[in-house]
Amino acid sequence: MSDVSIRFGTDGWRAVIAEDFTFANVRRVAWALAEHLQASGRARQGVAVGYDCRFLSDRFAAAVASVLAAADIPVILSPTACPTPALSWAVVSRRLGAGVMITASHNPPEYNGFKLKGWFGGPALPEETQQLESILARQEAARRPGQEPPRGMDLDEARRLGRVEEADLIGPYVEQLRRLVDWERLRSARLRVVVDPMHGAARGILAQLLREAGLEVTEIRGEWNPGFGGLAPEPIARNLGPAIEAVQRLQAQAVLVTDGDGDRVGAVDATGEVVDAQRIFALLLQHLVEVRGWRGAVIKTFAGTRMVDKLAARYGLPFRETPIGFKHVCEHALKEDVLIGGEESGGIGIKNHMPERDGLLCNLLLAEIMATRGRTLAEQVRALMAEIGPHHFQRRDLRLSAEGKDRLLRRLAEDPPSRLAGWPVERVDPLDGYKLIFGPSRWILFRASGTEPVVRVYAEAESPEAVEALLADGLRFVDAVAGA
Ligand SMILES: O=P(O)(O)OC[C@H]1O[C@H](O)[C@H](O)[C@@H](O)[C@@H]1O
């Protein structure tokens, strides 16, 4: 049995390259996937394999393809790095049995990962990843100690036998995006924007689409750089310094940002103010209902903003809250008509596309919003908050010791604080981590990440000062319990 425990967390298996994310371990997962697909009857439908711009991602993807081909499973292999939504679109549009994306998404450069997509294009549902994990454990138990899994077949041989076909995944995906955006409106607005793919897999693609629509576009962080310039490719304020600098220098109306694999969205306004994913979610929901006239259920994961609940109620749309992880949004999208589903982390998916997050599409829609309203994103956010009330949000990620984390979670389960920053806690919601609720717009959530060794503390309130106060007292509580 290997001494590495391979677990599919919030989305896929992630590990440090060369430490645990090794060719042998990637092959282990691929062999387990092959058996799982054969057992579930999806093997003949084939699998799309894609990868991002991280160190060795192309080689790990080739290793996956050669194992699947050895198991006689047809593989569509991307010849270039591609965004995750392009891989997902290949699964949906070609009706494949599954998709594999080699990416660690927004995580720092030393990580890589194995994201599994279900036949519907979104992240594999929990029951599927559990099956995969148990097959993996069984296959490992059957191996002699120290024995590595077989390497799979020679890729050239697999190509000759027609088991591996290289096919462009980006072109068909871009065609799909062309169907989803109001290009005429974009063309008429003559916007000037900066596009920031954070050295990730959307580089060149979003900028090109916007240029074709007549926008004046400058792309930053578009070069291939698997070190990501020293900043994790996660579109949150602390990593957006270059975007803030560029928007001011170029006097652009916005920066449109995607994460390392292009499934998350972020933005910066003309003034350099970060428009976080909470606000983007609210703006997209407002746009889809008020401008496009679309309807359907609204799905939000647990750390999402209350703006979304309020908007859903105002528009009379069904509203559901799920644990963190887009797979939970997918569970709903497979059962009911979902208008929009999304997360605080910037993964947002919309109707008439696929049950999957799409950072490129969300950015195109942000440009469409600016073109439609004639306002910058921050102006539009202010107009929205004038209608539904102010909402401000912050998140901190804390590196605690394993014991500290356990102590904190135990304390929250058994004896959570009854007040923070002087405000009494009305109730505690333990859906995913522990959310202390203080009123209709004020809450704080403590939760262990499923993708990184951190505890996340999220807070929302009606003013920046109230968020600060809540967070400061929340962090004092963590410090006292866990010794952060
Ligand atoms: O907070 P974490 O457990 O690290 O998860 C943060 C995010 O990770 C991945 O990107 C998942 O696909 C998302 O669904 C999730 O929101």
UniProtKB/TrEMBL annotation:
Residues 432-472 form the Alpha-D-phosphohexomutase C-terminal domain. Its EC number is 5.4.2.2. Residues 7-141, 172-272, 278-386 form the Alpha-D-phosphohexomutase alpha/beta/alpha domain. Its cofactor is Mg(2+). It is an enzyme of class 5 (isomerase). Keywords: Isomerase, Magnesium, Metal-binding, Phosphoprotein. PROSITE patterns: PGM_PMM. Pathway: Lipid metabolism; Glycolipid metabolism; diglucosyl-diacylglycerol biosynthesis. Belongs to the phosphohexose mutase family. This is Phosphoglucomutase. It comes from Thermaerobacter composti.
